[in-house]
Design brief:
There is one protein chain. By secondary structure, the protein is mainly α. Helices cover 65% and strands 1% of the residues. The longest helix has 29 residues. The radius of gyration is 22 Å and the shape is globular.
Length: 448
């Protein structure tokens, strides 16, 4: 046995006894460290003097696809640095395990049990989905959506007179689909508040990423005749996404009114975009968020808490979790013995997972709020907005990110990382016992 084979076998024996959720956490932590090191290189920086903590903040924000920034990315980093950010946005958006597994499948190899366990921990999907088909679908769908989005934005940016329109289009297309919210414009998309084309292309990309790969693969299976109709999960996701979009848009329009734009058409457009950017967790904005009145900020906070859908690029509690918790409340109030949703019984394991996810999300958010309220001098609503945005991996800010103390920055880093992994998965990685060995001796591929 060669030294390389012995090394891989040794790694496999070490990994197989570790719970897959914990392996996923270590994987994303490794991504953050690598991005941090690359951004700290001299040739990644356009200006000197940026602290190591700020580089760590940007690295975590990119991997978690959040978009919060303590420094201006286009003003701080060189082209190499921007490409590093873009690379880790892509890795964080579709998951490093998806990319690695796609490479394995493209080489004609089968996924090992260790890789399958980690993928199942990173993605929640119906049991009817074949994992290899799902991985291929994720990559193809991502490339198709980002390519079409980049072409559309290229034309729109060129018409608007944007410099380096093609590069800007590619960057913003990937950032939008991965719901990252990183922009090469210092004021995000405020300069395009009246550009309906840019608004709707970015919104389309964000929705495609946020509704999740479950829906994308599900729609494809229906289209190709592999199943008769969409799964219950997909129908719940699409229904709640539409409901949150309409409710958030109408709510912001009624609360903010004339502050969103000079004409009713622009007001509706701005209200739609701000509702969309919060619930998909894409994090772009076309109006200054810090200028919104308290009622509007609170509505945006609620949308950020709910967030996107499972197995997608967005964060938040997730629409499916909210639907399950709603089913619990509804069934209890009606005195029903079983938890049902739209006439269907909800399995008890999903009920428990939904309640636990919401409870742990609230716990992490409360701890983050407590620390930030002790370390920061901003008003509490701005702090609450920042913490919710970080944990939901949204990236919207009321304007206090650059003024955070060092401890405040570290707190936001922790919230962003927990949000990318998912609060329940993050908690499981911390408290679960390691798994029993489940990988065969000859399965030494693991995550190398």
């Amino acid at each position: 046995m060669s030294p390389q084979t012995r090394f891989r076998a040794s790694v496999a024996r070490t990994v197989r006894g570790v719970h897959p959720v914990r392996l996923v956490l270590f994987g994303y932590l490794t991504c953050v460290v690598v991005a941090w090191v690359l951004l700290s290189l001299p040739w990644a920086q356009a200006v000197a003097g940026t602290s190591a903590l700020d580089h760590l903040f940007i690295a975590t924000s990119a991997v978690s696809t959040t978009g919060l920034a303590t420094v201006s990315p286009p003003g701080t980093y060189s082209l190499f640095g921007e490409l590093v950010i873009l690379l880790f946005i892509q890795i964080g958006g579709i998951g490093y395990m998806s990319l690695g597994s796609f490479i394995v499948l493209s080489r004609g190899r089968r996924l090992s049990k260790s890789r399958t366990r980690m993928l199942s921990a990173d993605f929640a999907m119906p049991r009817s989905f074949a994992l290899d088909e799902f991985v291929r679908g994720v990559i193809v769908f991502t490339l198709l959506a980002e390519t079409l989005g980049a072409l559309a934005l290229w034309g729109l940016f060129s018409s608007a007179g944007v410099e380096n329109a093609f590069y800007q289009a590619v960057f913003h297309s990937i950032s939008a689909f991965c719901t990252a919210g990183f922009s090469l414009f210092d004021t995000s998309l405020e300069a395009f508040a009246g550009n309906a084309g840019v608004n709707f292309v970015v919104a389309a990309l964000a929705y495609l990423g946020a509704i999740g790969f479950i829906v994308a693969v599900d729609v494809w299976r229906v289209w190709t005749g592999k199943q008769p109709r969409l799964t219950t999960t997909s129908r719940i996701i699409l229904r709640l996404t539409a409901l949150l979009t309409v409710g958030g848009t109408v709510g912001l329009f009624l609360i903010e009114g004339d502050l969103l734009g000079p004409t009713p058409a622009l007001q509706w457009l701005a209200a739609f975009f701000q509702a969309m950017t919060a619930m998909t967790t894409v994090g772009f904005n076309t109006v200054p968020i810090g200028g919104l009145i308290p009622g509007a900020l609170f509505l945006v906070i609620l949308l950020m808490v709910v967030g996107a859908s499972p197995s997608g690029t967005g964060g938040g509690v997730k629409t499916t979790t909210i639907s399950a918790v709603y089913a619990v409340v509804r069934s209890v109030l009606r005195g029903e013995d079983d938890v049902t949703y739209r006439g269907q019984r909800v399995p008890i394991d999903r009920v428990l997972a939904a309640v636990a996810s919401l409870a742990f999300y609230a716990t992490v958010l409360i701890v983050g709020l407590l620390i930030l309220s002790l370390t920061e001098t901003a008003d509490f609503q701005a702090i609450a907005f920042e913490a919710t945005s970080a944990l939901g991996t949204v990236g919207l800010s009321a304007g206090i990110t650059g003024d955070l103390t060092d401890l405040g920055k570290l707190t936001i880093v922790g919230l962003m990382f927990a949000g990318r992994l998912g609060p329940l998965s993050f908690g499981s990685a911390l408290f679960l016992r390691d798994a029993t060995p489940a990988v065969l001796e000859d399965e030494v591929e693991v995550i190398l």
